[in-house]
């Protein structure tokens, strides 16, 4: 008897990130009670890569310090808490995704926007793990609203 693998195509097999993106697009763009003015969207599209670059440069010393301190304290993670080490790794992942997003954001490509989206998802995951729920809700809503409002400018 031959084992057959069922096909994985279809709506239920959509990529998890695509499902999140579609959901957020529906509520932050399609059903949003307020759309940003077109001129402001144009400004955001041109300013976003520069804002991300400034944030990355300003966060670099803190990230290096956290990674260095995290490496020193790793043997004592039982005493310090695994959560802090995990938060440093999440911050590093979001930082790296931000760096990867930059060239695409300057060129207005969908891939650049996708990496910005992934970076913000990882950042929100960090807030969730740290139980910063108010920050997660406020930061998540504002950031995702803004990046989804300009999503259509990236091809």
Describe how the helices and strands are arranged.
Elements: H1 16-30, H2 38-73, H3 77-80, H4 82-107, H5 110-129, H6 133-149
Describe the structure.
This protein has helices spanning 16-30, 38-73, 77-80, 82-107, 110-129, 133-149. It has 155 residues and is mainly alpha-helical. It has one domain. It is globular. The protein starts with 15 loop residues before the first helix and ends in a 6-residue tail after the last helix. The model has no long low-confidence stretch (mean pLDDT 86).
Mean pLDDT over the residues: 86
Order of helices and strands: HHHHHH
Distance between the termini: 48 Å
Largest sheet: none
Domain count, please report it: 1
- Overall 3D geometry? globular
- Total of DSSP H or I helical runs spanning 4+ residues: 6
Query: Would you report the number of β strands?
Result: 0
């Amino acid at each position: 008897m031959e084992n057959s693998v069922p096909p994985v195509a279809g709506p239920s097999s959509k990529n998890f990130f695509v499902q999140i993106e579609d959901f957020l697009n529906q509520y932050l763009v399609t059903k949003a009670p307020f759309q940003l003015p077109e001129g402001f969207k144009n400004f955001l599209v041109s300013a976003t890569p520069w804002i991300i670059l400034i944030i990355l440069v300003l966060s670099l010393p803190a990230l290096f310090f956290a990674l260095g301190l995290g490496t020193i304290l790793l043997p004592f993670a039982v005493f310090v808490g695994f959560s802090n080490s995990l938060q440093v790794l999440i911050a590093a992942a979001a930082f790296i995704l931000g760096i990867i997003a930059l060239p695409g954001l300057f060129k207005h490509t969908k891939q650049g926007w996708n990496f910005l989206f992934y970076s913000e998802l990882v950042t929100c995951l960090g807030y969730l793990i740290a139980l910063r729920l108010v920050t997660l809700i406020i930061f998540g809503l504002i950031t995702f609203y803004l990046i989804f409002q300009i999503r259509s400018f990236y091809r």
